[in-house]
Amino acid sequence: MDEQRRKGLDKMNEVYAWDMPNIEGDDFFALTVDHLFGNIWSRPGLSMRDKRLMTLSVVTALGLQDLTEVQVNAALENDELTEEELKEMAIFLTQYVGFPLASGLNGVVSRVSGKRKKKGSGEDTAEKKRANVNAAVKMSTGRTLDE
Fold this sequence. Notes:
There is one protein chain. With 147 residues, this protein is an all-alpha fold. The protein has helices spanning 3-16, 27-40, 48-61, 65-77, 83-97, 99-119, 125-141. The chain has two domains: 1-44, no CATH class; 47-147, AhpD-like, CATH 1.20.1290. 73% of the residues lie in helices and 0% in strands. Helix 1 (3-16) packs across helix 2, helix 3 (48-61) runs antiparallel to helix 4 and helix 4 (65-77) crosses helix 6 (99-119). The protein is globular and about 45 Å long.
C-alpha cells in the first residue's frame, strides 16, 4: 500500500473510530480514502470537531440521514460532541434548513444515542467497529466486507 493510501486510511479510521481495511480495486474507495481523507480531512487549520460540525450541517441540510447517522455515531464515539450538543444543533439548524430536515438530525441523534445506550459497554469494541465499517461499505458499494 502506498503512502497516500496509508495516510488516508489512518485519517479515515481516526475520523470514524473504525478499523477500515484497504479495499483494492474499487475506484470510489480509492478516491474517498486517498483524496477526501488523505488530503482534505488531513489538512491543518480546522479541528476534527470543526470539520464534523460542518459535515453534520451539510448532510442534515441535504437530508442524508444515512450519512448523518455515521457522523453522529463518530462524533459521540470520538467524544467530539455530546448528545445534548447534537440536539442543540438540530434546534439551531431548524432556523436555517427548516423543520423537516433538522428534525431528521434530531431523530438520528435519538436513534444513535438509544442504540449506544442499549448496547452499553458490554459490546466488544472490535465487533462494534466491524459493524460500523460494514454499514459504511454497504452504503457505498451495496455489499459488506463479508459478502
